[in-house]
Amino acid sequence: MRRQIRGLGVGIPAHDEADRIEVCLRSVLDAARHARLPTALVVVADACTDATAALAQRVLDAADPSNVMGTVVRTNHRAAGAARATALDTALEMLDATPDAVWLATTDADTLVHPSWLRAHLRWARRGVDGIAGLVEVDWEGTPPDLAARYGVSIEPDGVAMGHRHVHGANLGVLGQRWQEVGGCGAGPVAEDHELWRRLRAAGAEVIGVDDLRVRTSGRLAARAPLGFSYYLTQLVADA
């Protein structure tokens, strides 16, 4: 029997992302329109010193209200994990559906999702999977010329096909009930995505790395989170 999903929650943590948050949100709103389900979209502006919160609210205020409820939450966590957890917890609370009928998706503020992004999430959710990890493509504009090749070599051991072992906060999904059961992703400043995955696996949830769920993220080398994706790229540069 196919699982019934009656609502989508999307959480986006953001720290000083004024230059990217608007295009990110527009891509997510486009994906929500294609998904055609009630969707709660939450941006957590965490310890921002720029116009991230105001710009995000402006985009959300202009969104089609037919199936999307959007809000901006201002926090001072100074931690990606706590910000992501706040975003997904808030989205779950906003929806008029029980957690077993809500699918939570998360991405990052420097990331663009495909119009089919949330539809792909729903396909897996309805099949009964509890958690999915998608793949991340990188915008290499402005980066060292050999960085893309070095990155490609670095991710080969964990695969890029079905069953891959990559886990990125920029492209994750989880059933609301499972999210609550494991206590979310943790409040740490880094690696909250891997912590969520570890908790789900330890709880016996059905999780899988999928190859039909892709996003495009920034290849910037100036990190917002310590030891995050940008830091990983800087290490590849340093090892050249």
Give a summary of the structure in a few sentences.
The chain has 240 residues and is an alpha/beta fold.
Uncertain runs: none
Distance from N terminus to C terminus (CA atoms, Å) equals 51 Å
Order of helices and strands: EHEHEHEEHEHEHHEH
Content of β-strand: 15-25%
* Shape estimate: globular
Helices, by number, come to 8
Biggest beta-sheet profile: 8 strands, mixed
CATH superfamily: Spore Coat Polysaccharide Biosynthesis Protein SpsA, Chain A
| Oligomeric state of shown chains | single chain
Q: How many structural domains? A: 1
Keywords:
240 residues, alpha/beta, Spore Coat Polysaccharide Biosynthesis Protein SpsA, Chain A, eight-stranded mixed β-sheet, 8 strands
Notes on the structure:
- The chain has 240 residues and is α/β, with parallel strands linked by helices.
- The chain has a single domain (7-238), classed as Spore Coat Polysaccharide Biosynthesis Protein SpsA, Chain A (Alpha-Beta Complex), CATH 3.90.550.10.
- It contains eight helices and eight strands.
- Strands 3-2-1-4-7-6-8-5 form an eight-stranded mixed beta sheet, with helices on both faces.
- Helix 1 (21-35) packs across helix 4 (117-127).
- The protein is globular, with a radius of gyration of 17 Å.
- The chain starts with 6 loop residues before the first strand and ends with a helix.
- The mean pLDDT is 93.
